[in-house]
Each structure stands twice: as structure tokens, then as C-alpha cells.
Amino acid sequence: MGTMMTAMTRSRRDHFEPSDADPQEQRRLRGHLEQIDYTTFISNREVIPQVMGLGASHTEPEAFQRLAVAAASARARWIAEALRLTEHGHQVAPHDAERLGTLRQVYEELSEAYEGLRRMVERGYLPYRPSEK
């Protein structure tokens, strides 16, 4: 059973698993599910590079570095702002907390984008070409 990270919690995907069906019917069902999974894999492998404008080209380390730097910068801005807001020991005003939440959301979105790109390479949806150094 797979898990999916959503915000700060993990949610489990719910797949039907028949327990009292006969073994032949279970094998047939697993075969259908494998076809479904393969169709999904092929669809992702064909569509994702096109939507991302990669065509037949490869994802390169620089793409990961750009996302990693952007996420690290967003994280640093979020924490720096939190430290600045609490510097004098005063309560944080609602409008400041809202701004802090926005900064956190930017960091989380960039971090999720990085993980999403990594999963696309890991699952074979995007070809990857390492640097030639």
C-alpha cells in the first residue's frame, strides 16, 4: 500500500483487496490492475515530458539544483521572518502570522515540486542525464 505526503501528514491510498474471492478470480483481477498501472505509467511517461516542454530531451542536474536552491532560500526567508517577528519577545500580530504562513507555503510548495520532479525521474516518467564532469 503506497503512501502520499500531503502537507504535514501522510495519507494512505485505499486499494480494494478482496479476501474471500477465489484464487483464480484474484489472479484475473491482479492482471487487470497491472494493466491499469501500466497504462498509467505509459501515460505519465508520454504526457509529462511534453507538458514540461522537454520533448525528447533529458532532465538535468541543473533543474534539481535550481529547485533545491529556491526551496532552501524560501525556507531561510520563512525562518528568518519568524526569528525577526519574535526577536523582541512580543506577541506576533495576526497580519504577521499570515505573512509567515505565506512564506511557509512558498517553501512547502517548492519543496513538494522538488520531490515531485525527483519522483518523476525515479519512476521513469522523465529521462535523466547526469552532468558530464
Number of E-state strands = 2
What sort of overall outline do the alpha carbons produce when their principal axes are compared? flat
The proportion of residues forming helix, as a percent range, comes to: 55-70%
The percentage of residues in β strands lies in 5-15%
Question: Over the alpha carbons, how many angstroms does the gyration radius reach?
Answer: 21 Å
Query: How would you classify the helix and strand content by structural class?
Result: mainly alpha
Largest sheet: 2 strands, antiparallel
Are there runs of 5+ residues with pLDDT below 50, and where? none
Mean pLDDT across the residues is: 86
Number of helices: 3
- Which strand order spans the largest sheet, edge to edge or round the barrel? 1-2
Order of helices and strands: EEHHH
Distance between the termini: 39 Å
How are the secondary structure elements laid out?
Layout: E1 3-6, E2 9-12, H1 23-51, H2 61-85, H3 94-122
Antiparallel strand pairs: 1-2
Helix pairs in contact: 2-3
